Amino acid sequence: MSSIRFDPGTAADWPEYNGGSDKNHYSALTQINPQNVAQLKVAWGYQSGGADTLKNTTQMQCNPLIINGVMYGVSAGSQAFALDAASGKELWKTRLNDQTFNMTSRGVAYWSDGTEGRIFFGYGAYLYALNAKNGQPILSFGSNGKINLIDGIQRPGADDYVVCNTPVSVYKNILIVGTRVAESATALLGDIRAYDTRTGRKIWTFHTIPRPGEYGYSTWEKQNYQNLGGANSWMGMAVDTKRGIVFAPTGSAAFDFYGGNRKGDNLFANCLLALDANTGKRLWHFQTVHHDIWDRDIPAPPNLFTVTKNGQKIDAVSVLSKQGFTFVFDRVTGKPLFPIEERSFPASEIAGEQASPTQPIPLGPEPFTRQSFTTSEVNSFTADRDEIIAEVRKANTGQPFIPIGYQRTLFYPGTDGGAQWGGAAVDENSVMYVPAKENPVYSSLVAIPKEEDHQSLKSGKQLYLTHCGACHGENREGNHDGTYPGLQNIAVKYDEAGIRQIMAKGRGMMPAITQLKEPEIQAIVAFLNGKNTKIKTKNEHKLSSSPYRHTGYNRWYDRNGYPVSTPPWGTLTAIDLNTGKRRWQIPLGEYPELTAKGIPPTGTDNYGAPAVTAGGLLFIAATKDQQFRAIDRNSGKILWQTTLPAAGYASPSVYAVNGKQYLVIACGGGKLKSKSGDKYVAFTLP
User: Fold this and answer.
1) Of 79, 215, 533, 651, which is the most buried if we count CB atoms within 10 A?
2) Residues 471, 475, 476, 480: what is their CA dihedral angle, to the nearest 10 degrees?
3) Which of 173, 176, 201, 172 lies closest to 191 in space, CA to CA?
4) pLDDT by residue (tens digit) across 605-636?
5) Counting Cβ atoms within 10 Å, is residue 244 exposed (0-12), middle (13-18) or buried (19+)?
C-alpha cells in the first residue's frame, strides 16, 4: 500500500457517507461494466469483530469510506477501524473502553486540512476525533478527544439517551451534527449543532423545536420546547459545498403517535431544512408531514443533483418519504419542481388529538410504492385469507394519513417505509434508484390510566407495557420478523444483571432506558422473570408524559411468515428526476421456496441502499435473502448475484486502488431473524 496522504483523491475514492456530500451513492468508475460483471470474484474478507453470540445479536449498517487506498469503517462491536483497501489488512482499530455499550453505526466522517487527517466517529453519546493514521483520539479536540452530545439538549423531565450513529457532515472546518434520541415522551431535544473540526468548540445551534421569538414557535403550544423532544436529524445530511448550504431532514416530535399536547403543525419536525452551513441560519424549509402522528420521519439523507426542465438546468435537492413519495425542490429558493397539493384527510377519534386537516401530496415524481391497503390487496396465496380479509374490513385503512385510533389502524407502506434509512442513489443523468418495501403494519392507541394525586400503585406489567410493550409486544411475544425480539424466555438467556445492562445501555435499535427510578427498573425486571409486583410511584415527569401508549409496530404476516399483502413486498425503482416518470421497477429479493413453487420473485423486506456507477451498473445487497446483486441500471435486469456470509443490510462502497476497481459491503445481518455477522467482503475482477 502507498503511504497515507491526507488530500482526498478523485473518482478512485468513496470519501463520504453515501459516496459524497451530495449523498448520491455514485461512482464515476467504469472498469466493472455489464460486459464483465459476471466475472466478479471475492478480493478479500475482513472479520471486523463483535459478531453475535447466543446472548448478543449484532448488526452492521456501515457504509465505509475509502480515501487514498485506506478504508475506514465500524465493526459489529461498534469499534472504528482502518484497512488497506486493496488487501483488507487491518491498519488500526479502536479499543474504546466501554465494552458493555452496543449500538448500530452507519459509518464515520473524514476531514483533512492537507497536512493531517481526522476520522470523526460517533460512539454512543460521544463524538470522537481520531487520528486517521493510527486511530488514537486527538486530545486537543473537545474534552480529551471527544464531545458529549447530551450537553445542550437536556430539558426538564427528559431521559439521557442520545447517540450519533449516522456520520456527521463536514463543510470546510465545520462539523454539522444530528443525533438519534428516544421516540418516547421523555426524549431529549433534537437540536442540530455545528462544531469546529480542530477544537470541538460549538459554532452554532439550530432549534428544531423553536424557542419564544424564533420562527415557527407559533406552530406549537407554548413552552413545548420544555416539555417535548425529538424533531431530530438522525438520518444524515447533504451539503452543497459550492453555496455553503446544508440540507438537514428531521423526524417527528416525540411521542410519535400522539400530539394532543403539541397542537399545531409543529415546525421544524418532519422538515427539509436548508441552513447556512457557516451560521445555522434558516434559508428555507418544507414540511413533508404536518403534525406527525404516524412516525413519518423523513427516512434518509437528501440527494443533490441537477435536472433539466423546459430546457433549463436547475440545481435540485430531494427527500424521500416513508409513504413512497419523492419531494423535489430548487436547491436555492426551495420552490417545488413538481406540483405539491394539500389534500384533506380524516380527523382523529382520539380525545384531545387535533390532526392536521391536510397533508402535502407531491403530484410528481410518480410514487415508488402503492399508497393504500384494502381487502383487494390481500395476497391471493396467503394462509388464512378469509380471516385476514375479515380483519382488514374491521380496520381503519384504505388511504394514507388515517390517524391512529382505538382500534386497529393500518400503515401502508409500513411504519419504516416505503423508503428507509438507506436512501436512494442518483446517477450523472439524474436518474434515481430507490429501494422500498410494502408490508402492512398495524397498531392502535391505548389510554394510560390517570394517576391520582400524582401518586399511584403500578405493577411491573403496567411499567413494561408503558416502556417496552410497543416494541416487544403486549405479551412479550416480539414481532414476527425478529426486528423486536420476544422476551417471554428472556430469563433463559440473561440473568438479572444482564437484563439491567441492556436496559441501561441499550442495544442495536433499542435506546437505553434511563428515565426510570430503581424501583421501576426492579419491577420490570421482576415481571420479565415471571413476577408481577406492584410499587408506589410518583409522577415526577409530568412535563414528559403522554396519556396514551401505542400497541406496537405489528408487521402483518400470515402464519407461514409471509406478508399478507399482494407482492411485490420489496422493490427497486428507477425514476427519471427530469420528468418525474418511472423508468422501471423490479421486485428486490425473493423467497427461494416460493420461487420453487412457480411463484414469481416477490421481493423481500430490505434495509440498505444501492451504489450506482458510470459503468452502467447498480450494486445492492439489502435483502433478507442474503444476496448481493449487480443490476443493469438502464433495464433493471439482474446481471450477477452472489450469496453473502450474512445479509448485507448496508450500502456498498465503490472505489479503486492502483487502477483496480473494487466494491465492498458490510455483511452484518441481525435483522429480520437473519443470522448476525461481522464480515466485510470486497469484490473485484480477476
Assistant:
1) 651
2) -70
3) 176
4) 999 999 999 999 999 999 999 999 999 999 99
5) middle
Q: d(Cα 234, Cα 229) in Å, to the nearest integer? A: 13
Determine the Cα–Cα distance for residues 384 and 393; give it in Å rounded to an integer.
Answer: 15
Grid coordinates representing 397 are 385503512
The pTM assigned to this predicted structure is 0.92
577, 447 Cβ separation under 8 angstroms: no
Query: DSSP assignment, residue 395?
Result: S
Position 491 scores a pLDDT of: 75
What are the cell numbers at 336? 417545488
Give the pLDDT confidence of 141-176 residue by residue, as tens digits.
999 999 999 999 999 989 999 999 999 999 999 999
How many beta carbons lie within 10 A of that of residue 284, not counting itself?
17
Residues present in the chain in total: 686
Average confidence (pLDDT) over 572-593? 98
Per-residue pLDDT band at 402 (split at 50, 70, 90): very high
Where do the CATH 1.10.760.10 domains begin and end in the chain?
Answer: 452-538
Superfamily of structural domain 452-538: Cytochrome c-like domain (1.10.760.10)
Query: What are 341's strand-pairing partners?
Result: 361
Residues 6+ apart with CB under 8 A from 461: 527, 532
Residues 6+ apart with CB under 8 A from 123: 78, 80, 96, 101, 103, 146, 164
The reported pLDDT for the residue numbered 2 is 38
**Beta strands 26-27; 611-613: pairing state:** parallel
For 51, 93, 95, 104, 166, the CA distances from 47, given in Å and listed in that order, are: 9, 12, 16, 17, 22
Output phi, psi for 514, to 5 deg. -110, -5
The pLDDT confidence band at residue 456, using thresholds 50, 70 and 90, is low
First to last CA, the chain: 19
Instruction: For residue 684, list its beta bridge partners.
Output: 41, 662
- CATH number of 1-104+565-686, picked from 2.140.10.10, 3.10.120.10, 3.90.76.10, 3.20.20.100: 2.140.10.10
DSSP 454: G
Strands of 312-320's sheet, edge to edge?
303-309, 312-320, 326-330
Is the separation of the CB atoms in 560 and 416 below 8 Å? no
Please tell me whether residue 382 adopts helix, strand or coil conformation: coil
pLDDT tens-digit profile of 207-264? 999 999 999 999 999 999 999 999 999 999 999 999 999 999 999 999 999 999 999 9
Report pLDDT for 469. Answer: 75
Could you give the CA distance from residue 271 to residue 248 in angstroms, rounded to a whole number?
8
CB count within 10 Å of CB 53 equals 9
| Helices 496-505 & 518-528 angle (0-180, nearest 10) | 120
For the chain, residues classed under CATH 2.140.10.10 are 1-104+565-686
| Gap between the Cα atoms of 375 and 392, Å rounded | 6
